[in-house]
Amino acid sequence: MTNEAPLWVPSDQIRKDSPMAKFIAWCGERHGLNFADYDAFHAWSVERRDDFWTAIWDFCGVKGNRGERALINGDVMLEARFFPDAELNFAENLLSRTGAGDALIFRGEDKVRDRWSWDRLTALVSKLQQAYRAAGIVKGDRIAAMMPNMPETIAAMLAAASIGAVWSSCSPDFGEQGVLDRFGQIAPKLFIACDGYWYAGKLQDVSGKIAAVTARLGVPSVIVPYAGDAAAVVAVTPNARTLGDFVAPFDAKPVEYVALPFSHPLYILFSSGTTGVPKCIVHSAGGTLLQHLKEHRLHCGLTEGERLFYFTTCGWMMWNWLVSGLAIGATLCLFDGSPFHPDGNVLFDYAADEKFAIFGTSAKYIDAVRKGGFTPRTTHDLSSLRLMTSTGSPLSPEGFSFVYEGIKPDVQLASISGGTDIVSCFVLGNPLKPVWRGEIQGAGLGLAVDVWNDEGQPVRGEKGELVCTKAFPSMPIMFWNDPDGAKYRAAYFERFDNIWCHGDFAEWTQHGGIVIHGRSDATLNPGGVRIGTAEIYNQVEQMEEVAEALCIGQDWDDDVRVVLFVRLASGVALTDDLIKAIKTRIRTGASPRHVPAKIIAVADIPRTKSGKIVELAVREVVHGRPVKNKEALANPEALHLFEGLAELGR
Question: Residue 241: what are its φ and ψ, rounded to 5°?
Fold first, then answer.
């Protein structure tokens, strides 16, 4: 990478006019400071977190009472409190506009198209707010939803937030037990579900699942018409009503926004749950709002009226991230279904039709577009697209190159990383810095992100643990059903005292960017040397013969050996020549230490509902240990492919 030119460099106009540049100048004037460059400003944002987050509140025009104090107990991560005197309402901040302009645009595969104005969205929020109250739902009660990424889902969440109820959602492709593993822990007062959904052109019936989940939860349910027959689902579901019946008694009127503390719970998100029952991660209204405003307004440069798209389900934290774009006054572009139905152009058709300014997706999707032979650069008008973001897994250097060669040569590509744990990003894009192949641009403002070695020392130019050394507003308030905080502390604070250890294996680059090499708990340790799985995937998955790969460490002969599983492209066989080619590619592209001891072809690779491959679950199966929560997987049957493999006994 050292001799390569950057893939993208911000123009002088961007450096001068971007919201990030304007904010830095505004803060300098406000505090009588002259920031030499972005790095100097980032250092100030971490050193003066009270001033920085107060500036975010004021610059972004948060609706609410900020109070005098911005941060107390700031030196102790588990005791720090941001804006302890503040009151606000999350929904009030997101319902930031009125009128007939587009708030939401929706496509459900090739079956449904819809547009919602700000007034239409607010009207349904008002009716739902009244219906919730009539149903006895009060501040602090939980509302659980198994819904597609559609406008009614956003309205239902905003109505919950308006009265201080706590929202939790998953996608309708979760199995019955997967839904119960999540919502059964949080005792919701109401369950909301769709009457069916489409995937790859096929109608997916969920009536039996809804009836079973509703009965097990023992709560009323609301059925939202979408793809099936809502009345038929109601007929087989105990204590259920259609959405129309639920809100029928109420007329739209001004929404009442309950003023709530900054740290009032807003969302319960769930860990992937592939090594046990999912953890219930509780996020605050104020912390979520400030962090998302910072990321949307400054790091993404989002402005009022722009089109913001993220390909996500309601079971992934990127949905929560997407929805906050309303606070800027952006138009959200929602999509539900397969991104390859009827073909791989569908999302780029949507982007061209609606003039996306920001196109958010996953690294796996970008790789699938590349391998599918699609070149949107030559087939679609993407002139409005200025930012493409990628997350879910590390984006390979080849993925970076493809975006510029195959999608758009002058787009800013922001690989981003953070997660459910913080409902936001630790490292992400920056409109003031170049994009270098294979690198995330840098740390988020206000976040003391670093890379530490096993001795707890900061390192440069070598791999280590991604940490955050100072408290930040979007830390979880708590885990649900964790009264003494033991699970919370164990998740992030056991490795280093008073330091958030995120569980990513990372490395600073010479450009001040960062590379994520995979999850720390999935790193490989052959001969005692830590290797990130992403380093292997970056080589193997560029080969046309390999559709997808998964790598684990197998305990072997008092050491660990690297085992690589490959799902091959259609019609390809794992011959000795191909095995040799894979090993050569890894040896030359990564290092001899990365070369697997075994390469085995499998028909499928297990993944979570959000598309992440599950190395830990496969490692458990290979070692003959039970996988505790198969319901978290989109394709749990794939785990059987890894049981009792003769090749792994040799």
Answer: -140, 155
H or E segment and range at residue 168:
strand 166-170
Structure-token pair, residue 528: 């005692």
Ramachandran angles phi, psi of 81, nearest 5°: -135, 125
Q: Return the SS3 of 296.
A: helix
How far apart (Å, rounded) are the C-alpha atoms in residues 273 and 71? 33
**Rounded-to-integer distance, Cα 307 and Cα 196, Å:** 27
Inter-residue contact 328 to 300 (CB < 8 Å) = no
Vertex 118, ends 115 and 120: CA angle to 5°? Answer: 65
pLDDT, tens only, 171-198: 999 889 889 999 999 999 999 999 999 9
- The set of residues, in sequence order, having a beta carbon less than 8 Å from that of 394 and lying 6+ positions away, is 363, 415, 417, 515, 516, 517, 518, 534, 537, 538
118 three-class SS: helix
Number of helices and strands in the chain (H, E): 21, 32
Provide DSSP, 333-393.
EEEES-TTSS-TTHHHHHHHHHT-SEEEEEHHHHHHHHHTT--HHHHS--TT--EEEEESS
Residues 401-433: pLDDT tens digits? 999 999 999 999 999 999 999 999 999 999 999
**Contact assessment for residue 434 and residue 10, using Cβ atoms and an 8 Å cutoff:** yes
499-521 exposure pattern, b = at least 16 Cβ within 10 A, e = fewer: bbbbbbbbbbbebbbbbbbbbbe
Residue type at 87?
A: E
Residue 467, strand partner residues: 450, 501
Sheet of 190-194: strands edge to edge?
240-242, 221-224, 190-194, 142-146, 166-170, 265-270, 280-284, 478-479
CB atoms within 10 A of CB 649: 6
Structure-token match 């001795």, residue found? 455
> What pLDDT score does 274 carry?
60
Q: Which amino acid is at 629?
A: N
Residue 484's φ and ψ, nearest 5 degrees, are -100, 5
Half-sphere exposure (CA, 13 Å, Cβ side) for 312? Answer: 24
- List pLDDT tens digits, range 521-536: 777 878 767 788 888 9
568: three-class secondary structure by DSSP: strand
In this structure, are residues 150 and 197 in contact, taking their beta carbons and an 8 Å threshold? no
Q: Which tokens sit at 300?
A: 């993404």
CA gap 427, 507 in Å, rounded:
12
Q: Which two tokens stand for residue 126?
A: 């008002």
Q: 449, 443 in Cβ contact below 8 A?
A: yes
**Pair of tokens at residue 293:** 């405003």
Tokens of 467: 């940490």
Query: What is the Cα–Cα distance from 182 to 272, expressed in whole angstroms?
Result: 10
Task: Give the closest residue to 43 by CA, choosing from 637, 377, 447.
Answer: 447
Q: Are strands 358-362 and 81-82 parallel, antiparallel or unpaired?
A: unpaired
Could you tell me the sign of the dihedral formed by the alpha carbons of 13, 16, 20, 23, in that order? negative
Element spanning 247, H or E: helix 243-247
Contact 271, 107 (CB under 8 A): no
Closest CA to 359 of 396, 388, 336: 388
| Cβ-contact 258, 243 below 8 angstroms | no
